[in-house]
């Protein structure tokens, strides 16, 4: 499994601690340094079964500067949101864990991390 993290994030550190405690095999991706491109974001959104606005941190400074709260949340605006996430990765909710069954989870809770573990590793 791959875990998208920001090391400064307590939820990310908590997820990694739980994965370590469970002996999980995973790869860390520091997505602020190794920024995902638009295609990767689209792929993760498909795995998450979510829309880009569902994983956007709207309280971040960049979100406020872009006026994201005012952006339409509809199919026609999807690419605009994906572009914003690719250009401002701090806007991406974290941690995101990919699972062996082809799904992914935003793992902000212990329950979500355990759900990812139940789905296996890749």
UniProtKB/TrEMBL annotation:
Record Pfam families: ArsC (PF03960)
Q: What is this protein called?
A: Arsenate reductase
Can you tell me which family this protein belongs to? Belongs to the ArsC family.
Q: Which InterPro entries match?
A: Arsenate_reductase-like, Thioredoxin-like_sf
Origin organism is Streptomyces pluripotens
């Amino acid at each position: 499994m791959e875990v998208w993290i920001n090391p400064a994030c307590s939820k990310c550190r908590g997820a990694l601690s739980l994965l370590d405690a469970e002996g999980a095999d995973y790869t860390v991706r520091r997505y602020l340094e190794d920024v995902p491109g638009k295609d990767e974001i689209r792929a993760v959104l498909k795995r998450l079964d979510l829309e880009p606005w569902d994983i956007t941190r709207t309280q971040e400074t960049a979100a406020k500067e872009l006026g994201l709260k005012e952006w339409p949340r509809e199919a026609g605006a999807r690419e605009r949101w994906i572009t914003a996430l690719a250009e401002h990765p701090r806007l991406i909710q974290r941690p995101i864990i990919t699972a062996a069954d082809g799904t992914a989870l935003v793992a902000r809770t212990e329950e979500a991390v355990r759900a990812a573990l139940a789905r296996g590793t890749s």
